[in-house]
Amino acid sequence: MLAYTVIVCRMFNVSVFDETRARNQIFGDGYSDINTLSSAWYFKDSGFTKTAFLPVHEYKVQTKQPAIYTHYPALPNILAGAAAVVLNTYNEPLLRLLPVLLSLLLAFFIYRVLHRLIPDKRVALLATVLLYSSNYFIAWADNLHQHLYGELLKWLSIAVMMEYYEKGRSQLRLLLVLCIIMLLQVNISFEQPVFFGILAAGFAWHYQRNVFTRETVLLFVSLCAGFLLHMYQNKVYFGSWQLAIDDLTNAFVYRTTGQQAIQGGHAEETFSWVQWLTLPADWLNRMERFFVLPGWFVLVVYILFYKKIHTQGEKSLQLIWVFLAAGIAWSVVMPQHAFIHSFTSKHFAVWYAPVAASGLYLLYQHLRNTFSEMNWWKKVFYVCLIGYACIMFITQHVWELYLKFGVLYTVL
Q: Is this prediction's pTM over 0.90?
């Protein structure tokens, strides 16, 4: 109830145009939402075929000339446009109704995956609550662009993959579902297929000790088919395959290095080794804004109770290494994009939830049984550790998310 109280308040009160505060890439992605809203309005007025279903930016929402955007998959914009046509509306809160309704499915699959992954049902429930009450879920549940759709398909794919492998790879209809998910993921965001690719390889290795399997090959084919579908849109728009390839190549070089490709296909490398070294610190720092328990707290608790966390779940919790690798993957493939966009912290959610919940539960048990017998310096350490987590939760979630940019947004 708490989560959806805040979600509904934000849905009706926090506009895309508050992109520097309440939808600032931490509490939603106002910039991309504006572009999606622009596309929805254009599609309602002019239809989909004039731009080959590609997004249209700056339409009625900026003073600039409308621009066709070719560098990003178009499916979220198409869905927003379809909602605008079906509902016959330009109204932003009404257009947010589709992602909010789909967030209920996301909540279901989060619950289902975590309860299958974590053997102790008390810890599984705690992990679920940690995500439901977090910025990761609440601030992005009404997102017009790709985030809600991508996370929904991500958790759905994990649920299907666990079912498929645990039933001995005999349910081929589940494999077909996974292939369809992959094709959709590529047309929602280029971030999701990278995560899904690591996930597929990790599951194959975990269950079969082989990454070149029937499943990984078929999923790779689905990825290519989805990407070719987007490229075909660009080809129709530009008029030739070469122009479509050049356009996306330039975008890839920029998102990898931070510089536009110059003539001859070369680029000046600007993403230095210093930035590579700071990326892990950025991941942990951003977690305190996205998740209830801050990243540094989770890291310390994970180190303290590493053996117990991994012996609790044995085989099932070994998958958290797969989830961690999948969470890191986008920063390796597109480091410049990950560096400038804090919302890429969302990719750690599947790793974060079981680790944070298991660590918090073990910390509680440890302190309940031994706190009175500890040396004073250990007591100070644990008090400071818990105090830090509480302060971050109160300032980043209770104050900023639930109140300032949530239920009290129209007052403050």
A: yes
